[in-house]
From TrEMBL:
It comes from the Bacteria. Keywords: Flavoprotein, FMN, NADP, Oxidoreductase. PANTHER family: NAD(P)H NITROREDUCTASE YDGI-RELATED, NITROREDUCTASE. Belongs to the nitroreductase family. Its cofactor is FMN. Residues 9-186 form the Nitroreductase domain. InterPro entries: NfsB-like, Nitroreductase, Nitroreductase-like. One of its GO terms (molecular function) is oxidoreductase activity. This is NAD(P)H-dependent oxidoreductase.
Length: 210
Protein backbone atom coordinates (compact mmCIF):
# COMPACT_ATOMS: atom_id res chain seq x y z
CA UNK A 1 0.00 0.00 0.00
CA UNK A 2 2.82 2.39 0.82
CA UNK A 3 4.29 1.80 -2.64
CA UNK A 4 1.19 2.95 -4.52
CA UNK A 5 0.89 6.09 -2.37
CA UNK A 6 4.55 6.81 -3.07
CA UNK A 7 3.92 6.33 -6.80
CA UNK A 8 0.91 8.65 -6.77
CA UNK A 9 2.94 11.31 -5.01
CA UNK A 10 5.69 10.83 -7.60
CA UNK A 11 3.22 11.34 -10.46
CA UNK A 12 2.54 14.84 -11.75
CA UNK A 13 1.18 16.38 -14.94
CA UNK A 14 4.41 16.32 -16.91
CA UNK A 15 5.01 19.55 -18.81
CA UNK A 16 8.23 18.60 -20.63
CA UNK A 17 8.96 15.13 -21.93
CA UNK A 18 12.37 13.74 -22.79
CA UNK A 19 12.20 13.33 -26.57
CA UNK A 20 15.04 10.76 -26.53
CA UNK A 21 13.14 8.25 -24.39
CA UNK A 22 10.41 5.95 -25.64
CA UNK A 23 8.01 3.68 -23.81
CA UNK A 24 9.00 0.21 -24.98
CA UNK A 25 6.47 -2.09 -26.63
CA UNK A 26 6.17 -4.41 -23.62
CA UNK A 27 5.43 -1.57 -21.20
CA UNK A 28 3.01 -0.01 -23.67
CA UNK A 29 1.11 -3.29 -23.93
CA UNK A 30 0.91 -3.45 -20.13
CA UNK A 31 -0.57 0.04 -20.02
CA UNK A 32 -3.08 -0.79 -22.74
CA UNK A 33 -4.08 -4.05 -21.08
CA UNK A 34 -4.62 -2.21 -17.79
CA UNK A 35 -6.80 0.25 -19.68
CA UNK A 36 -8.75 -2.59 -21.31
CA UNK A 37 -9.41 -4.06 -17.86
CA UNK A 38 -10.79 -0.79 -16.48
CA UNK A 39 -14.25 -0.67 -14.98
CA UNK A 40 -17.15 0.87 -16.89
CA UNK A 41 -20.87 1.10 -16.23
CA UNK A 42 -22.48 -2.28 -16.95
CA UNK A 43 -19.10 -3.28 -18.42
CA UNK A 44 -20.12 -1.73 -21.76
CA UNK A 45 -16.91 0.23 -22.52
CA UNK A 46 -18.67 2.73 -24.84
CA UNK A 47 -15.49 4.22 -26.27
CA UNK A 48 -12.51 3.61 -28.51
CA UNK A 49 -8.87 4.45 -27.75
CA UNK A 50 -6.33 5.67 -30.29
CA UNK A 51 -2.61 5.19 -29.57
CA UNK A 52 -0.70 7.69 -31.67
CA UNK A 53 3.03 7.47 -32.32
CA UNK A 54 3.13 8.86 -35.88
CA UNK A 55 5.11 12.11 -35.85
CA UNK A 56 3.35 13.71 -38.82
CA UNK A 57 -0.06 13.11 -37.30
CA UNK A 58 1.05 14.55 -33.97
CA UNK A 59 2.36 17.65 -35.73
CA UNK A 60 -1.15 18.14 -37.12
CA UNK A 61 -2.69 17.72 -33.68
CA UNK A 62 -0.31 20.08 -31.88
CA UNK A 63 -1.75 23.41 -33.18
CA UNK A 64 -5.25 22.32 -32.16
CA UNK A 65 -3.96 21.32 -28.72
CA UNK A 66 -3.02 24.91 -27.89
CA UNK A 67 0.52 24.19 -29.17
CA UNK A 68 1.32 22.15 -26.07
CA UNK A 69 4.72 20.53 -26.54
CA UNK A 70 3.66 17.27 -24.91
CA UNK A 71 1.80 16.31 -28.08
CA UNK A 72 4.97 16.07 -30.14
CA UNK A 73 7.57 15.43 -27.41
CA UNK A 74 5.96 12.56 -25.49
CA UNK A 75 6.61 8.97 -26.42
CA UNK A 76 2.98 8.34 -27.35
CA UNK A 77 -0.28 10.27 -27.37
CA UNK A 78 -3.45 8.46 -26.39
CA UNK A 79 -6.82 9.82 -27.47
CA UNK A 80 -9.89 8.57 -25.65
CA UNK A 81 -12.96 8.86 -27.86
CA UNK A 82 -16.45 8.23 -26.50
CA UNK A 83 -19.46 7.17 -28.54
CA UNK A 84 -21.61 10.17 -29.44
CA UNK A 85 -24.78 8.13 -29.17
CA UNK A 86 -25.82 4.51 -29.22
CA UNK A 87 -28.67 2.11 -29.78
CA UNK A 88 -29.49 -1.40 -28.65
CA UNK A 89 -26.46 -2.71 -30.56
CA UNK A 90 -24.22 -1.40 -27.74
CA UNK A 91 -25.87 -3.78 -25.30
CA UNK A 92 -26.25 -6.60 -27.82
CA UNK A 93 -22.56 -6.53 -28.80
CA UNK A 94 -21.51 -6.61 -25.16
CA UNK A 95 -23.79 -9.51 -24.30
CA UNK A 96 -22.62 -11.46 -27.35
CA UNK A 97 -19.15 -11.16 -25.84
CA UNK A 98 -20.43 -12.26 -22.42
CA UNK A 99 -22.10 -15.33 -23.93
CA UNK A 100 -18.98 -16.29 -25.86
CA UNK A 101 -16.54 -15.60 -23.01
CA UNK A 102 -18.51 -17.38 -20.30
CA UNK A 103 -19.99 -20.16 -22.39
CA UNK A 104 -23.60 -19.40 -21.51
CA UNK A 105 -26.76 -18.87 -23.55
CA UNK A 106 -28.36 -15.63 -24.67
CA UNK A 107 -31.44 -16.67 -22.74
CA UNK A 108 -29.37 -16.59 -19.53
CA UNK A 109 -28.59 -12.88 -20.01
CA UNK A 110 -31.94 -11.76 -21.42
CA UNK A 111 -33.05 -10.27 -18.11
CA UNK A 112 -29.85 -8.25 -17.82
CA UNK A 113 -30.20 -7.17 -21.44
CA UNK A 114 -33.74 -5.94 -20.88
CA UNK A 115 -32.69 -4.12 -17.71
CA UNK A 116 -29.80 -2.27 -19.39
CA UNK A 117 -31.90 -1.31 -22.38
CA UNK A 118 -34.67 -0.01 -20.12
CA UNK A 119 -32.17 2.27 -18.36
CA UNK A 120 -30.14 3.46 -21.34
CA UNK A 121 -32.19 3.50 -24.53
CA UNK A 122 -34.61 6.16 -23.39
CA UNK A 123 -31.89 8.71 -22.63
CA UNK A 124 -31.77 11.81 -24.86
CA UNK A 125 -28.75 11.81 -27.19
CA UNK A 126 -26.99 14.57 -25.24
CA UNK A 127 -27.30 12.48 -22.07
CA UNK A 128 -25.96 9.44 -23.89
CA UNK A 129 -22.94 11.47 -24.98
CA UNK A 130 -22.36 12.72 -21.45
CA UNK A 131 -22.68 9.22 -20.01
CA UNK A 132 -20.22 7.64 -22.46
CA UNK A 133 -17.74 10.48 -21.86
CA UNK A 134 -17.80 9.78 -18.13
CA UNK A 135 -16.88 6.16 -18.77
CA UNK A 136 -13.75 7.35 -20.55
CA UNK A 137 -12.45 8.97 -17.37
CA UNK A 138 -12.61 5.69 -15.47
CA UNK A 139 -10.24 4.18 -18.04
CA UNK A 140 -8.06 7.30 -18.04
CA UNK A 141 -7.61 7.23 -14.26
CA UNK A 142 -6.74 3.55 -14.30
CA UNK A 143 -4.13 4.03 -17.02
CA UNK A 144 -2.53 6.94 -15.15
CA UNK A 145 -2.32 4.99 -11.89
CA UNK A 146 -0.74 1.97 -13.53
CA UNK A 147 1.66 4.22 -15.43
CA UNK A 148 2.74 5.82 -12.15
CA UNK A 149 3.38 2.37 -10.66
CA UNK A 150 5.66 1.67 -13.65
CA UNK A 151 7.41 5.06 -13.33
CA UNK A 152 6.03 6.16 -16.69
CA UNK A 153 5.04 9.80 -16.82
CA UNK A 154 1.71 11.10 -18.03
CA UNK A 155 -0.05 14.36 -18.72
CA UNK A 156 -3.84 14.40 -19.13
CA UNK A 157 -4.92 17.09 -21.57
CA UNK A 158 -8.37 18.64 -21.94
CA UNK A 159 -7.03 21.79 -23.59
CA UNK A 160 -7.66 20.92 -27.22
CA UNK A 161 -10.09 21.75 -30.02
CA UNK A 162 -12.45 18.84 -29.87
CA UNK A 163 -14.00 19.28 -33.32
CA UNK A 164 -10.58 19.60 -34.97
CA UNK A 165 -9.44 16.36 -33.37
CA UNK A 166 -12.59 14.67 -34.63
CA UNK A 167 -11.89 16.00 -38.11
CA UNK A 168 -8.18 15.09 -38.21
CA UNK A 169 -8.75 11.60 -36.84
CA UNK A 170 -11.92 10.98 -38.85
CA UNK A 171 -13.95 10.23 -35.75
CA UNK A 172 -17.40 11.42 -36.82
CA UNK A 173 -17.64 8.71 -39.43
CA UNK A 174 -17.32 6.19 -36.59
CA UNK A 175 -19.78 7.95 -34.25
CA UNK A 176 -16.91 8.90 -31.95
CA UNK A 177 -15.91 12.07 -30.15
CA UNK A 178 -12.46 12.92 -28.76
CA UNK A 179 -13.08 13.57 -25.08
CA UNK A 180 -9.64 13.59 -23.43
CA UNK A 181 -6.00 13.18 -24.44
CA UNK A 182 -3.14 11.59 -22.50
CA UNK A 183 0.54 12.06 -23.29
CA UNK A 184 2.83 9.32 -21.95
CA UNK A 185 6.60 9.04 -21.76
CA UNK A 186 9.41 10.15 -19.48
CA UNK A 187 9.93 13.52 -17.85
CA UNK A 188 12.72 15.78 -19.05
CA UNK A 189 15.31 16.72 -16.44
CA UNK A 190 14.63 20.37 -17.34
CA UNK A 191 10.97 20.16 -16.32
CA UNK A 192 10.95 22.26 -13.17
CA UNK A 193 7.36 21.23 -12.39
CA UNK A 194 8.58 17.85 -11.12
CA UNK A 195 10.25 19.53 -8.15
CA UNK A 196 7.14 21.36 -6.94
CA UNK A 197 5.27 20.07 -3.91
CA UNK A 198 2.01 18.33 -4.78
CA UNK A 199 -0.96 20.49 -3.84
CA UNK A 200 -4.08 18.68 -2.64
CA UNK A 201 -6.67 19.46 0.01
CA UNK A 202 -6.02 17.78 3.37
CA UNK A 203 -8.08 14.68 4.08
CA UNK A 204 -9.92 16.48 6.88
CA UNK A 205 -11.39 18.83 4.30
CA UNK A 206 -11.92 16.29 1.54
CA UNK A 207 -13.51 13.37 3.37
CA UNK A 208 -16.56 13.06 5.59
CA UNK A 209 -17.01 9.83 7.52
CA UNK A 210 -20.63 9.10 8.42
Amino acid sequence: MKDIIHDLNWRYATKKFDTTKKVNSEDLETLLEATRLSASSYGLQPYHIFVIENKELREKLKPVTWNQSQITDASHVIVFANKNSFGEDLVDDYLDNVVQTRGITHEAVKGYSDFMKSKLMGLPNEHKNSWTARQVYLALGNLMTVAASMKIDTCPIEGFENEKYNEILGLKESNLNASVVLAIGYRASSDETQHLSKVRYPKERLFTHL
